[in-house]
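When time allows, look over one protein, given below as sequence and tokens. The question is which stretches look regular and which look disordered:
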Amino acid sequence: MFRIFLFVLVFSCFHGLKAQSPVGHYPANTGVQVEMPENLRNLIYLYKEKAKKYPQIAGYRIQIFNGRKSDCLSQRGAFLRQFPEMQAYLLYEVPEYKTQVGNFRSRLEAERFLQQIIEAFPGSFVIATQIEYPKVE
């Protein structure tokens, strides 16, 4: 008897509630307005301008060597002779130069390519960095 009473009570309380409006019965003004302070609007503008100036995205590269500039250049040349279609970069971060290769969107892609080159370039490893956008052909 208590169960029936509880069911009737719960049903009568929730009977009039509606989670969504029926199709075609929406309020006239359905647009969304976002209000934000002027300094936040300026910050978003600056972010967009920076993105235009530095068109890079988060991704991965493989670092095959670091050390003196001449050594890095020779490693870069050796890499490009074996993989001419791949990008190779010479970077300088105090106090040494780094040779990095590839523009991989995911770590899995980078790890897969690392397995192909690890014998020719021992000590190579994957690093997270900013990469160029993929080429659209």
